[in-house]
Amino acid sequence: EIYARLKSELLDDPAFDFTDDSRQWIDRMLDYNVPGGKLNRGLSVVDSYKLLKGKELSEEEFFLASTLGWCIEWLQAYFLVLDDIMDSSHTRRGQPCWFRLPKVGMIAVNDGILLRNHIPRVLKRHFKDKSYYVDLLDLFNEVEFQTASGQMLDLITTLEGETDLSKYKLPVYNRIVQYKTAYYSFYLPVACALLMSGEDLDNFIEVKNILVEMGTYFQVQDDYLDCFGDPEFIGKIGTDIEDFKCSWLVVQALARADENQMKVISENYGKADQSCVMKVKAVYKDLNLQGLFSEFERTSYEKLISSIEAQPSKAVQEVLKSFLAKIYKRQK
Amino acid sequence: EIYARLKSELLDDPAFDFTDDSRQWIDRMLDYNVPGGKLNRGLSVVDSYKLLKGKELSEEEFFLASTLGWCIEWLQAYFLVLDDIMDSSHTRRGQPCWFRLPKVGMIAVNDGILLRNHIPRVLKRHFKDKSYYVDLLDLFNEVEFQTASGQMLDLITTLEGETDLSKYKLPVYNRIVQYKTAYYSFYLPVACALLMSGEDLDNFIEVKNILVEMGTYFQVQDDYLDCFGDPEFIGKIGTDIEDFKCSWLVVQALARADENQMKVISENYGKADQSCVMKVKAVYKDLNLQGLFSEFERTSYEKLISSIEAQPSKAVQEVLKSFLAKIYKRQK
Ligand SMILES: [Mg+2]
Ligand SMILES: [Mg+2]
Ligand SMILES: [Mg+2]
Ligand SMILES: [Mg+2]
Ligand SMILES: [Mg+2]
Ligand SMILES: [Mg+2]
Question: Which residues of B touch A144 (CB under 8 A)?
Answer without folding.
Answer: 117
